[in-house]
Please model this.
Amino acid sequence: MADQTEQVQKTETPAAPANDHSGKKLIGIIILAVIVLGSAFYYWRSTFTEDTDDAQIDGNLYQVSSRVSGQVIHVDVEEEQFVHQGDPIAEIDPKDLQVALEQAQANLANAQAAYEQAQVNVPITNVQVSTTVQTSTSDVLGSQASVEQAEAQVQVARAKVQSAKAQALRSQLDVQRYTPLVSKDVISKQQFDAAVAQAAADQGTLDAAERDVKAQEDSVRLMRQRLAQSQSQQVQSVKNAPRQVAVQQARAVAAAAAIKEAQAKVDQARLNLSYTKILSPVTGIVSNKSVASGQNLSVGQSLMTIVPLTDLWITANFKETQLKEMKSGQKVDIEVDALGGRKFTGVVDEIGGATGSSLSLFPPENATGNYVKVVQRIPVRINFTNLDKENKDFALRIGMSVVPTVHVKN
Model:
């Protein structure tokens, strides 16, 4: 029995070095595998992706200011308070602006009344000028008839003059014939006196007829003057009629424009009144609050800053050697340091137009000769692609450090 045990021990003793050799071989294989996998991962990472830890969340800081002047009657937010877009922030006393709105509305009512009046006057003016043209035409026709009638009266008067001249001549000849006869008592003194009286009467009739001719000629001249005046008025009426209508129409157009102007002032007054209630422009956090109740504000005075929590993006400063394969539209994996590596998705939007050093306050002057080549960094804008779902808790903040990984190759 002892011999058998001793023989077994002799048989097992040489096997121990073989086990040690197998373990070392396994460890070597594992190390080699790790090295190969690490090299493969490094190759994949350096070939198919680019990342940087020089990146942070950016966004537009909204400076809330007053659009109207007035006294603040109350403030609805506190420093570092979370607000949604459209939430009330503060209110300005609206009384003065309410009075301005009522005054603007009254001016609008006056403008509308003036427009109605101007509109009514257009057809009235049209009728008036048409009547004036017709009246002037009638006056011309009447004046022409009066001239013709006066000229006819002149002809009648002249005919009467001729008749009176013949009668006066005959009476004068009778007196001349009776004069020698009365001296010889051939005819009676009474007959001679009757002849003299008749001659005087006929001479008076002639004088009256001549005066009537002159009066009728004066009447013709007067009628012709009236005709000329009527014709001139007719010409002016015909010429001015469309102008008068156009003037009234222009007044109506001006009244309509005055309505628009008054309406614009009403709209502006209503807008100014609405500006008394200051609302949050975005969803975010109140910062740098500098307004308090009772404070008098002027137009454009800053009240606070709203730090947005929704409209965010990433500014990543990649080395210039990392941009060879980078372009807009490439997918990005984003890890946020402050959230324990919580991941978000994004896409490359634009590659910056200049390096960060070139955009600095004091850019480097390489022309001095003391030049040392330094790898530059260029800002790249990365937009979140699913921020509404991935950031429902509004955990992201402007300025947080992130690590973006850009998939430069599929």
